[in-house]
């Protein structure tokens, strides 16, 4: 009977472990090494409409890259790319949209989650890097972060060198990048999506077709979405697409 009880206990523990692993996977948890944040620093800044946001600055320089995360991820999904671009001479800002509180490094951004308003967070991020001395800015966004970057770039008075999107939808929960807005973006544009992520690939083609030049669309042979494109089987290809676009529009 004791042997049977021990086996049953082990089975229960294995089940709990599997459930925890699945929960971490569903929440975007990673089992890889922790990113090196020793060269970065925490920052707090307001969105354009006054919501307090938390982020991190990587690197030094006068050319800034603003990285905006996807749903349901947070700024941590950008840390590896941020370190890579910082090593190449860019100053890079990662941050959490309003209402996101990932814990650990970066703290919690204030406010309620409201996707329709996150373009105001992108504008606040641009304001921060400008205040810190950046004279050129590139926006890179994943999924909703890509749409928010486009909406921010299309606002009157917004001056950026380029906008790069990974799997950005044309619209999500009241956040809309329509033809009128896109026509206002004179900056360089790169739309990236995976061919197996059908909705995102279709949206990338649509965004490309209704945007003015300069523009480029790349549909890569992958099923990944947003920042998962950076860690998937075509990750290095996508990173090089980003880097070549930066070299074209905002070299350091």
Task: Give the helices and strands, then pairings.
Blueprint: H1 2-26, E1 40-46, E2 52-58, E3 63-68, H2 79-87, E4 91-95, H3 119-131, E5 136-142, H4 144-153, E6 162-166, E7 171-172, E8 175-176, H5 179-182, E9 188-194, H6 198-210, E10 215-220, H7 228-231, H8 235-249
Can you tell me about this structure?
- With 252 residues, the protein is an alpha/beta fold.
- It has 2 domains: 1-31; 34-249, Alpha/Beta hydrolase fold, catalytic domain (Rossmann fold).
- The protein is 37% helix and 21% strand.
- The chain is built from 8 helices and 10 strands.
- It has an 8-stranded mixed β-sheet, sandwiched between helices.
- The longest helix has 25 residues, at 2-26.
- How would you sum up the global shape? globular
Using the coordinates shown, work out and report the CATH topology of the largest domain.
Answer: Rossmann fold
Strand content: 15-25%
Per CATH, the superfamily of the largest domain is Alpha/Beta hydrolase fold, catalytic domain
CATH architecture level-2 label of the largest domain: 3-Layer(aba) Sandwich
Count the E strands: 10
Using the coordinates above, name the CATH class of the largest domain. Alpha Beta
Could you say how many structural domains there are in total?
2
Instruction: Name the poorly predicted regions.
Output: 1-32
Q: Major sheet: size, sense and barrel closure?
A: 8 strands, mixed
Radius of gyration of CA atoms, rounded to a whole number: 19 Å
Q: What average pLDDT do the residues reach?
A: 88
Briefly note the structural class of the backbone: alpha/beta
- Through-space gap between termini: 71 Å
* Element-level helix/strand string: HEEEHEHEHEEEHEHEHH
- The number of distinct helices, counting runs of at least 4 residues, comes to 8
Strands in their spatial order, largest beta sheet: 1-2-4-3-5-6-9-10
């Amino acid at each position: 009977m004791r042997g049977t009880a021990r086996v049953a206990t082990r089975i229960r523990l294995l089940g709990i472990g599997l459930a925890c692993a699945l929960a971490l996977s569903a929440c975007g948890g990673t089992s890889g090494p922790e990113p090196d944040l020793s060269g970065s620093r925490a920052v707090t800044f307001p969105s354009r409409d006054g919501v307090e946001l938390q982020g991190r600055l990587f690197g030094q320089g006068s050319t800034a890259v603003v990285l905006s995360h996807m749903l349901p991820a947070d700024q941590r999904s950008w840390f590896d790319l941020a370190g890579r671009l910082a090593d190449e001479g860019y100053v890079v800002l990662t941050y959490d949209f309003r209402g996101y509180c990932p814990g650990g490094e970066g703290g919690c951004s204030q406010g309620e989650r409201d996707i329709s308003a996150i373009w105001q967070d992108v504008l606040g991020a641009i304001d921060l890097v400008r205040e810190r001395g950046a004279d050129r800015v590139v926006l890179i966004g994943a999924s909703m972060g890509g749409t928010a970057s486009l909406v921010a770039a299309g606002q009157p008075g917004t001056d950026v060198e380029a906008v790069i999107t990974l799997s950005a939808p044309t619209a999500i929960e009241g956040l809309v990048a329509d033809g009128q807005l896109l026509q206002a973006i004179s900056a360089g544009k790169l739309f990236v999506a995976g061919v197996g992520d059908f909705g995102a690939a279709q949206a990338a083609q649509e965004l490309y077709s209704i945007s003015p030049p300069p523009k480029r669309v790349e549909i890569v042979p992958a099923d990944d979405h947003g920042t998962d494109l950076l860690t998937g089987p075509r990750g290095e290809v996508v990173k090089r697409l980003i880097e070549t676009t930066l070299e074209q529009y905002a070299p350091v």
